[in-house]
Amino acid sequence: RLFWFIAAVALIALPMTAGEWHTGSANLCTDCHTMHFSQSHKWASGDPIGTVPDKNGDWLGTTGPNHFLLKAPANDLCLSCHDGQTFAPDVLMANTNAASVTFGREAGALNDIVAAEGYEAWMGHTLDSTSQPPGKENYNGADPYPAGTALECTNCHTQHGVAGVYRNIGPRNSAHQPTYVISTTNDNTKDVWVNIASGYVANSGDPATFSPYYDASNVTFNRNDATDINGKKTSNKIDTQCSVCHGVFHGGQGDSGIGGVPEDAMGGAEFLRHPTSQEILNTGGHGTSNINRFKAAVVKVKVYADDRVDYADATPGCVTSHKAHGNKNPFGLVFQSRTATGSSEEGDPGTEVAPAGAPGYQKGYRALCGQCHGQGS
Question: What does the CA dihedral 113, 117, 118, 120 come to, rounded to 10 degrees?
């Protein structure tokens, strides 16, 4: 789900790696907090204090005082820097910094309860929504999202950051926190590989510098099988985070809600729901996936794999089909044709044709399923 940052990007670039921008000395407390919600002039002069957020944190919100001494309500504070600004990643709806990414933002685009054309509430995660998550189940016996809860950035991210954790994904529990490496060389012990130079420096305030970290074309996911803290199979801690709210949809063969055991006489697993973990793409036949078909795709959807030549260990996961934040497609799905040469945050359905009488987006479903499945394609 995704990433976000609750504070303004600091003025001075510091040698912190991406994902750690809210830790240590990367930001000042006053970027986000105000002691008394009373400030009439700037820190260094008698000029009136502004209400427009900037990368110096020298501003004050228009409503307050707020909980936790925040300059603005939580989501508003996050979006004051992460929507429509060029000095920080844009995570809400259209990307202000779009020119600096190739295949769009890896996490895609959040929407909010104020409907906007092209980014309606059914196209991904909706900030301030009180709707219950689909596939919700109690996690370790606790309700992860009580009725009436409004979706906030901090449901998926840790506001102050966690050193070494991808996208500041939280909460502060190692079972939920995906690790990452920034390098032109992969480290498959990490959950995420961001394939850019290891000398990358955060807090630049320049999209040309920070956007490659978010560019979908630079992000891949390793396979690290484990059992999550709700006793289900997982192959990447990105999925473990998703399972906190969407647990019924999460797991691998044999897990509750997923099924697939025993296999049928032809060797295929009769799943109840599509697996998200530890299910290797098949060699073909039996109504299942086809690894050779996937390998031949010009542009591939994301899978969890250490082998990116033969994809012999590749397994689908949540990010295979969905953008963590969402996009302009139903449910944040990625409609990517296997024969298309390009992609975007929505994917590229290519020359797929919708069935007669079906809505146009149906061709996108065909393209997505056709990445791994040959039936009907």
Answer: 20
State residue 139's pLDDT score: 80
Sheet holding 192-194, edge to edge: 180-182, 192-194, 219-221
Where residue 16 falls (left for φ over 0; alpha for ψ -120 to 50; beta otherwise) is: beta
Beta bridge partners of residue 111, listed in sequence order: 126
pLDDT score, position 294: 95
pLDDT at 41: 83
Q: Percent of the chain at pLDDT above 70?
A: 88
Residue located via tokens 């059992």: 227
The residues with which 41 forms a beta bridge, in sequence order, are 48
pLDDT of residue 14: 34
* Closest C-alpha to 269, from 285, 249, 283, 288: 288
Contact indicator for 51, 57 with CB cutoff of 8 Å: no
Parts of the chain with a pLDDT under 50: 1-16, 18
The DSSP element (H or E) to which 262 belongs, if any, is strand 259-263
Rounded to an integer, what distance in angstroms lies between the CA atom of residue 128 and that of residue 133? 13
The number of beta carbons lying within 10 Å of the beta carbon of residue 270 is: 11
Instruction: Please tell me whether residue 105 adopts helix, strand or coil conformation.
Output: strand
pTM beyond 0.70, yes or no = yes
Residue 122 phi, psi (nearest 5) = -90, 10
pLDDT at 198 (0 to 100): 73
Strand (E) or helix (H) holding 271:
strand 269-271
Q: Helix/strand/coil (H, E, C) string of 24-64?
A: CCCCCHHHCECCCCCCCECCCCCCECECCCCCCCCECCCCC
Condensed to tens digits (0 to 9), the pLDDT of residues 219-229 reads: 999 999 999 87
**Rg of the Cα atoms in the chain:** 21
Give pLDDT, residue 4: 33
CB atoms within 10 A of CB 63: 10
Q: How many CB atoms lie within 10 A of CB 294?
A: 21
Q: Is 114 exposed, middle or buried (0-12, 13-18, 19+ CB in 10 A)?
A: exposed
The verdict on whether omega for the bond into residue 349 sits within 30 degrees of 0, i.e. cis, is no
Contact 19, 42 (CB under 8 A): no
Lookup: tokens for 56: 């110096």
